[in-house]
Design goal:
Helix-turn-helix transcriptional regulator, two-stranded antiparallel ribbon, 434 Repressor (Amino-terminal Domain), alpha+beta, 113 residues
Length: 113
């Protein structure tokens, strides 16, 4: 059987005309936003070959705080996001749209190939 024919329960319900309650949809959106940021922080940290402790020291935070951010257990404030971007030597780019959210860090340095 082709895996492309498999659908999640949510997808099946949506094709059958089911609509999620507003609270559920809002919670799902918040979780997705948090997870998108968490992945961007993790990916950039790994790209720089930093440990959570290294990043925490650079940003003036605790390792536990970095862990909570990467685990999407906390919602960082704008000043904290600025500290992270600086510590990751990058510009933080956030694009929010109703259907699409993109979070990325753009390095301040470009590699001369």
């Amino acid at each position: 059987m082709s895996h492309t024919r498999w659908k999640t329960l949510r997808e099946r319900k949506l094709t059958e005309g089911y609509t999620e309650p507003t609270e559920v949809a809002e919670t799902r959106r918040e979780i997705q936003l948090s997870m998108t940021l968490a992945k961007a922080v993790y990916d950039r940290r790994v790209e720089l070959r930093l440990t959570q402790a290294d990043l925490a020291e650079r940003a003036g935070l605790t390792q536990a705080k970095i862990s909570r951010i990467e685990g999407s257990d906390t919602v960082p404030t704008l000043p904290l996001l600025a500290k992270l971007a600086d510590a990751l030597d990058a510009t933080l780019n956030i694009a929010l749209d109703s259907d699409d959210t993109r979070v990325s860090f753009t390095s301040h340095h470009t590699d001369a190939a």
